[in-house]
Amino acid sequence: MMEVRQATAPASAETATTAELRGRYLVDDLFADGEVRAVYTHEDRMVLAGAVPAGTGPLALPTPDQLRAEHFLERRELGVVNVGGPGEVLVDDEPHALGTLDGAYVGRGRRVAFRGDGARFYLVSAGAHADHGVAVFRRDEVEPVELGDQRGASVRRLYRYVWGPGGHPSCQLQLGVTVIAEGSVWNTMPPHRHDRRTEVYLYTQLADDARVLHVLGEPGRTRHLWVRDGEAVISPSWSVHAGAGTGPYAFVWAMAGENTDYGDLDPVALEAL
Ligand SMILES: O=C(O)C(=O)C[C@H](O)C(=O)CO
After folding, report:
1. What is the CA angle 213-244-240, rounded to 5?
2. pLDDT by residue (tens digit) across 11-34?
3. Which pTM was predicted?
4. What is the Rg, in whole angstroms, of the alpha carbon atoms belonging to the chain?
5. Which residues sit with their C-beta closer than 6 Å to ligand 1?
6. Which InterPro entries does this chain map to (predicted)?
7. Which of 174, 187, 188 has the most ligand 1 atoms within 8 A of CB, as the residue to mutate?
8. What is the interface pTM, i.e. ipTM, of the complex?
């Protein structure tokens, strides 16, 4: 089952109702036991999905009709992050174990399935013209980038899995995980945009009664979404993306578009907000 979302114009965010904003940018129903649920956004043709094998044996990545393909990765590449308990991603039947917040990259042309009771796999896919192999990223083996400061309540660790020059190659996809330090609240502060790429954040590790206030829109006319655990937000290339949590959280960030250069971003000064 795959829902399709159309691309949107910057000005429309300013006048959208709360329900319209949520319907366009928030993805709130990705994870269901024994299912793969997907959303196709026309923003850089990214697909985001949730796969929850739930002890049912291997759960294969299906091929939604909208892809008009023999199999899901016929013309696509895939990023995977496990946001649940331990599990395995099977690539052409070869198992790769992923613990909580570990990630994987699967290049074009391969067949993928998922296994593990308690595992919840978050998937992000972009169009691909070449096969860049398979890689597994264990969060505790990746050197984090330390960001933020205590005065700004923004201390966090950014783990880069697929991120362009110096990282594992990809056609379009960039992928990683950011974990907010205890006592801090902000991600991506000061914020930025990147005119050449779309970005999607999947918020995870939030308590049931916690929320992230996610900021989106053009800098001078931002809006917000209240986001729960396991929900994702689509940021078109014109939109800032930043958030503050009411409790501890982490998020998976993923981008696709014109280039794979993580450092190619357009900072937004706080004075512009
Ligand atoms: O906390 C942060 O800062 C991030 O994680 C930033 C994301 O990686 C991002 O938005 C990259 O464009």
Report:
1. 75
2. 999 999 999 999 999 999 999 999
3. 0.98
4. 17
5. 147, 156, 158, 178, 187-188, 194, 199, 241, 253, 265
6. KduI, KduI/IolB_isomerase, KduI_N, RmlC-like_jellyroll, RmlC_Cupin_sf
7. 188
8. 0.99
